[in-house]
UniProtKB/TrEMBL annotation, chains A, C:
<feature type="compositionally biased region" description="Basic and acidic residues">
    <location>
        <begin position="307"/>
        <end position="330"/>
    </location>
</feature>
<feature type="region of interest" description="Disordered">
    <location>
        <begin position="451"/>
        <end position="478"/>
    </location>
</feature>
<protein>
    <recommendedName>
        <fullName>tRNA (adenine(58)-N(1))-methyltransferase non-catalytic subunit TRM6</fullName>
    </recommendedName>
</protein>
<comment type="subunit">
    <text>Heterotetramer.</text>
</comment>
<feature type="compositionally biased region" description="Basic and acidic residues">
    <location>
        <begin position="80"/>
        <end position="99"/>
    </location>
</feature>
<feature type="region of interest" description="Disordered">
    <location>
        <begin position="67"/>
        <end position="99"/>
    </location>
</feature>
<comment type="function">
    <text>Substrate-binding subunit of tRNA (adenine-N1-)-methyltransferase, which catalyzes the formation of N1-methyladenine at position 58 (m1A58) in initiator methionyl-tRNA.</text>
</comment>
<feature type="compositionally biased region" description="Basic and acidic residues">
    <location>
        <begin position="454"/>
        <end position="468"/>
    </location>
</feature>
<keyword id="KW-0819">tRNA processing</keyword>
From TrEMBL, chains B, D:
<keyword id="KW-0819">tRNA processing</keyword>
<dbReference type="InterPro" id="IPR029063">
    <property type="entry name" value="SAM-dependent_MTases_sf"/>
</dbReference>
<dbReference type="InterPro" id="IPR014816">
    <property type="entry name" value="tRNA_MeTrfase_Gcd14"/>
</dbReference>
<feature type="domain" description="tRNA (adenine(58)-N(1))-methyltransferase catalytic subunit TRM61 C-terminal">
    <location>
        <begin position="64"/>
        <end position="295"/>
    </location>
</feature>
<protein>
    <recommendedName>
        <fullName>tRNA (adenine(58)-N(1))-methyltransferase catalytic subunit TRMT61A</fullName>
        <ecNumber>2.1.1.220</ecNumber>
    </recommendedName>
</protein>
<comment type="function">
    <text>Catalytic subunit of tRNA (adenine-N(1)-)-methyltransferase, which catalyzes the formation of N(1)-methyladenine at position 58 (m1A58) in initiator methionyl-tRNA. Catalytic subunit of mRNA N(1)-methyltransferase complex, which mediates methylation of adenosine residues at the N(1) position of a small subset of mRNAs: N(1) methylation takes place in tRNA T-loop-like structures of mRNAs and is only present at low stoichiometries.</text>
</comment>
<keyword id="KW-0539">Nucleus</keyword>
<feature type="region of interest" description="Disordered">
    <location>
        <begin position="247"/>
        <end position="274"/>
    </location>
</feature>
<feature type="binding site">
    <location>
        <begin position="114"/>
        <end position="117"/>
    </location>
    <ligand>
        <name>S-adenosyl-L-methionine</name>
    </ligand>
</feature>
Length: 478, 298, 478, 298
């Protein structure tokens, strides 16, 4: 639990193959440590080889040839963030004559040759600007940011986490995560009561970021079922977290297009261990789709060509092997599907998190059926109208209480002596959330029995008990 | 029942949330033979609660019904006994994410206050993390201990009754994160720093006034903390409703309105109904400023 | 323009019949000075008689019997707003034993008898509260507000203006003004470019507040046409401004239900000076409606009873007189309608302000036709969806550019040494605005000619020219 | 044309706003024989502008078209040459209302800056009010004077080139309202007070930093100002658009998706289109704090 020795440095060390996040100022980029592999970040390229063995949180200088040289700790990012600034409060005395910078391009090249670092060059530029002091603070910040970007050659290597990845995606590619802002994600994880040991359902088209955030909060305990549309689940964002292997064992997937079958109770009959189910028949299905399609197309093109018998034989063998592989793959897929179905059939999941580009209303109404009563659900949507519809439908059909439609407002502050004020720009909106809690409906009596039975068959991971604490009053358990 | 793990059914000794209706709830400790009065009548614990599934509808003695809910840190925050001003879920959610909390994390908190944040932290760091929470006020520290026991999370938390500004958190070099909600956070920064692991960690300070933030930031910088970030998050709840808007009657071109008896139905009473969501008339505009910082590795 | 003598005190003096606003703390109430008339404000009653002759801005103490006694200037409101507070930052040391207030009810009565004023009593209560100092600031404020409300007997008499009346309505009766917040009203007046000398169209169901705000900004120069639905325009809010009589001469009204007739160019034919137009025919019309209805009903009831001939004769005469009065009234109404129609026919109004409970889309599309090109319009709606529809329709039909759908966010601050922070509560929303600028449509060529002709016939008030400045290049005028 | 009065048609010497498209405009001074280049080609002033009605569509030499608009203080704010940071319409609207400005009001302003607020004040106080505006920077004061001339409002305004903190507004006891946008407003409060009529008036100070607000409020209170109120207004523009959301395909009960060839049309491509409005990705989060106060009658 609490550890303080050198032995834990291993946990903080950067190893080959690790998923990392590169940081410079407010800019982040997810990457993986791969030796001799070029990485491009902020228009600069370099190799991460030298990061291996260093600790997470280290700031490196990018040197000639793209090698990284670690800074000593302390020296690094904080100093770089503090310029000795003296702001003019307006541009009263600025006459723009194009002569405000006393350093020439040659001067700057010379400074570089003298070995001055990015931050030092920026400070030189500031010191040699005749107008800098008279610029308004806003203009000064703009100036520094611009110059820093041009001359900064530091990069910090961070351990990925929800906070960093959420800020990274929102800053770089908000479209990929449905413009989900990190504070809104924070609300989702908390209002969804996501925690270790529970069984959480996730449907997202946020590149896997939401899935990863949920898994981080589960800490490898419990189970996550990811519903997915089309060919297969998107998980790139989750991969960026670099979870240890046992986390992945808690992750299950289930195709949206099988939800109705499952709800009708017919999935077992068709896909259970008894039914052998022809995988061929299943191949063109949406559940397979994208992943398999290119392979098959290729195969068909080849067989259409004229070939000699040897070639044909080889092809035939190849085809057989492929068919065999496909069969194994299908069998594996079937096994996993059935296992996931077993997790869902009890309709006793502990949480539901939806954040997608799909209309949330049918998604929510469909997946809500898998939740136990008295469990929270959260639905994110970039737009307000679809959640108004969700709200209205849920009120009509019942089974959920404490419905809340919310949005949030996030503002950062600059806190500096005599220059404290809100940061001048903010995000215009963080999207909308609908949250609520499931309750038993009148017709639940039968369902309760089913659910209780199903509970016995659940994977052990769901039932991590803190027996020593929880067992005190077990004699009263009905 | 535990505040860090779900159960299916209600047992004696559980704390359950009785949901009476929109924005109306109460926390109830379940005891054999006990009764709880609500505006819908009495709830008899033995027959109405014990053994029932969480989320069930319970009919009270006057015939009205309520839902009995499994407690979560969020429901607890809405129903806990206030011993101090408390932190609410919007700030708690932001704190949890920005402090990188997750199962296994070791967290230091001061003050414990009414335990609103403590429960949310425990939920997130269970089953392998630990919370060291420091409370200046003896009675409050004791009440918090009792609550943690009742909520089956006592094994995850150590409550210390001391002045964090003078005596720190009682641990050194173990914390992944520190949270401060005290009048003079700047006086506790060096204790916070030493409580955090030498490999680094995160800090959050919550202060209602900007002057507190200014002093805290100054000390944070001089103590070597980096990535300082002060922010505010406000949550706005929208009321979903149908609104009927009258349509204007511009009359016919011949100078008469459509209200005459010969042109039914009268369009002057024509309306359009829209579904919309309206913000509350009043909302929380400020709880406190959240200042986050990173202690870099030593 | 600039005046500084005693002679201008008249302008600042409270006179009998004046419209005023009563203020205590953040609570406002509009009233009129009427001698010997009881006024109820914040659960206290009093007479405004003694306010006459005093200056606006005077704070009065309500004395026994409801008479007002003016405070000396300076002494009044500022001191009352500053308590010597010393806030605990949490409730650490508060034990609630119901004994925290050392003053008894009798003590307080005694203080009152000793002639202590409200503020002094509150200070006594604070000084004698054992827990006050330990309360959080928020709790302290709540305590003071509660006690102040109970013991305060001061009231300030203010001159009405948009700022004060807008805050009053929003604070007391937001439903009456469609929840229009004062900062949103501020945006409307500015974005609508409301100013002296222009011709502004107003359609509002905000009790007349928006109309009054527009008229204040016009300063009695130019003209305002108020469109109204149903029986007649609502003007109570405007009356509260207490404008001088000549302001009212610039105000015109036009019934919504005649808009189509006017647009079809048929109003003149039917209502112009040539057509005599039977007023009887018009009476049951919506334009008359509500105002007249009760009178008529009464008349009919009376005639149904059996009466002797003398009585009958008297009734007959009365009826004739009434008919005559009605005829005069109708003629006056006709005259005004025709005059207002003349203002509109040129379709060259300078601004359009809409703020109503009606669906803004048909209202806007209908009334926009009366605007000249290159003129701003502003539409307020409490809800977002109707303005989205307005926006979409306007984009489809053209004739308007620079469309903006906005909402605003307003937060107040407490600025006190070491206790500076945003005020803890704020309004959740101030409604939505759609703004834009009209432009000539392709088919405007003909309209331009008409409009230019119409301009010559406009009332002089519209054309206050600053000739000395504006005339310099009149030789270039096409 | 004047910035305080509408005209129907464009004349030589007028300043017109050429509207090129969404958020793209420019201010142009109309001169016989002159040409203005736009991305749609040239606009020839003599034939394309002079004599045309404001609001007309003008076809440029390359065949593209623009609208020519009558200048208003609000359009001027969006198109003026920046000599300083300027005040924008959201703050200006609030200032105008909260200072009780109306025709006939006498207003003192410092600094003049780029004249953004000055024009809006002039529009509101015309035709009988007066603006006394003080600008420290000589060149800026001169440029402001020239602009007021060009906009035909010079008779309503007196520009003074002096340091308001040292020498005040140059008038005493005449102002209904004073506006301060200077680095140390607290140094000008006593001048502001003496500029306001003895019957009382309103004051507004605009400051970006909270420390400036704190010092200003302190001095305002000690100078006898009342009804202090510090606030912020943020305007958010929403982008109205149609959004198409895919509908999920849960498949049929028999385990097949609806994408099979025998059930057209495939619902997996089913969508719902909604009309919505989305906030901008980034917006102004802060311009400055507005502090209002009343000078009570003397």
């Amino acid at each position: 639990m609490a550890d303080n020795g050198d032995d834990v440095d291993a946990e903080y060390s950067i190893r080959d193959g690790d998923y990392i996040v590169l940081k410079r100022g407010e800019v982040y980029k997810a990457a993986q440590i791969q030796k001799k592999r070029k990485v491009i970040f902020e228009k600069q390229w370099f190799f991460l080889d030298n990061a291996v063995g260093e600790l997470f949180g280290t700031t490196f200088e990018i040197q000639a040839g793209g090698t990284l040289k670690p800074h000593a700790p302390k020296q690094a990012p904080s100093a770089a963030d503090k310029e000795a600034k003296e702001a003019g409060t307006d541009n009263r005395n600025i006459v723009d004559d194009g002569k405000s910078q006393k350093l020439t391009r040659d001067d700057i090249e010379m400074l570089k040759e003298q070995g001055l670092k990015g931050q030092e060059i920026v400070q030189q530029l500031i010191d040699n600007s005749t107008t800098f002091k008279d610029k308004t603070e806003f203009a000064q910040d703009k100036y520094i940011k611009k110059k820093k970007k041009k001359y900064d050659n530091n990069v910090t290597v961070l351990k990925p986490c929800t906070r960093i990845l959420a800020m990274m995606y929102h800053g770089r590619e908000p479209g990929k995560i449905c413009h989900l802002r990190h504070d809104t994600l924070a609300q989702m994880l908390t209002l969804g009561n996501i925690h270790a040991g529970s069984k959480v359902l996730v449907f997202e088209t946020c590149a896997g970021l939401v899935l990863g955030a949920v898994m981080e909060r589960m800490g490898g305990y419990g189970s996550v079922v990811q519903f997915y549309p089309g060919g297969g689940p998107t998980r790139a964002g989750m991969e960026n977290f670099g979870f240890p292997p046992h986390f992945h064992e808690t992750l299950h997937e289930f195709p949206l297009c099988k939800v109705n079958t499952l709800l009708a109770g017919k999935l077992g009959a068709e896909w259970g261990p008894e039914a052998s189910g022809d995988p061929q028949e299943e191949a063109p299905d949406g559940a397979e789709g994208e992943e398999e399609a290119p392979e098959e197309t290729q195969g068909m093109e080849v067989s259409a060509e004229g070939e000699d018998s040897k070639e044909k034989e080889r092809k035939e063998k190849c085809r057989e092997k492929k068919a065999q592989e496909r069969k194994v793959k299908m069998e594996e897929k079937r096994r996993k599907l059935v296992a996931t179905a077993a997790l869902l059939e009890g309709r006793d999941a502990d949480g539901l998190v939806i954040a997608s580009r799909f209309h949330p209303c049918p998604v929510l109404l469909g997946l809500l059926k898998f939740l136990a009563p008295s469990r929270p659900f959260v639905v994110y949507c970039q737009y307000r109208e679809p959640l108004i519809e969700c709200y209205t439908k849920l009120r009509e059909q019942g089974g959920a209480i404490n419905l809340r439609l919310t949005d949030s407002w996030l503002r950062h502050y600059q806190v500096l002596p005599n220059r404290t004020h809100p940061v001048l720009l903010m995000s215009g909106g963080g999207g909308y959330l609908l949250t609520g809690i499931t309750v038993a409906t009148e017709t639940d009596a039968a369902a309760i029995t089913t659910a209780t039975q199903a509970k016995e068959e659940e994977p052990a991971s769901k039932r991590i008990r803190l027996e020593e604490v929880d067992g005190t009053s077990s004699n009263n358990d009905a | 029942m535990s505040l860090v793990e779900y159960s299916a059914c209600i047992r004696e000794g559980d704390v359950v949330i009785v949901f009476l209706g929109h924005d109306s709830m109460m926390a109830v400790r379940v005891q054999k033979g006990a009764q709880t009065q609500t505006r819908y009548g009495a709830i008899r614990h033995s027959s109405d609660l014990i053994g029932r599934r969480f989320g069930s509808k319970v009919t009270c003695s006057k015939g009205g019904w309520v839902y009995v809910l499994h407690p979560t840190p969020e429901l607890w925050t809405l129903n806990l006994p206030h011993r101090t001003q408390i932190l609410y879920t919007t700030d708690i959610a932001t704190i949890t994410l920005m402090l990188d909390l997750k199962p296994g994390a070791v967290v230091c908190e001061s003050g414990t206050g009414s335990g609103s944040l403590s429960h949310a932290i425990l939920r997130t760091i269970a089953p392998t993390g630990h919370l060291h929470t420091v409370e200046f006020h003896a009675e409050r520290a004791q009440k918090a201990r009792e609550e943690f026991e009742r909520h089956h999370v006592a094994h995850l938390v150590t409550v210390r009754n001391q002045d964090v500004c003078r005596h720190g958190f009682g641990v050194v070099g173990v914390a992944n994160a520190v949270f401060l909600d005290i009048p003079s956070p700047w006086e506790a920064i060096h204790h916070a720093k030493s409580a955090i692991r030498r490999q680094g960690g995160r800090l959050c300070s919550f202060s209602p006034c900007i002057e507190q933030v200014q002093r805290t930031c100054e000390i944070l910088v001089s103590a070597g903390f980096t990535e300082l970030s002060t922010l505010e998050v406000l949550l706005r709840t929208h009321d979903v409703r149908s609104v009927t808007l009258p349509l204007p009657d511009f009359g016919s071109e011949d100078g008469h309105t459509h209200t005459g008896t010969h042109t039914p139905p009268p369009p002057s009473s024509a309306t359009a109904t829209i579904k919309t969501a309206t913000p509350p008339r009043e909302m929380a505009a400020h709880t406190g400023y959240l200042t986050f910082a990173t202690k870099p590795r030593e």
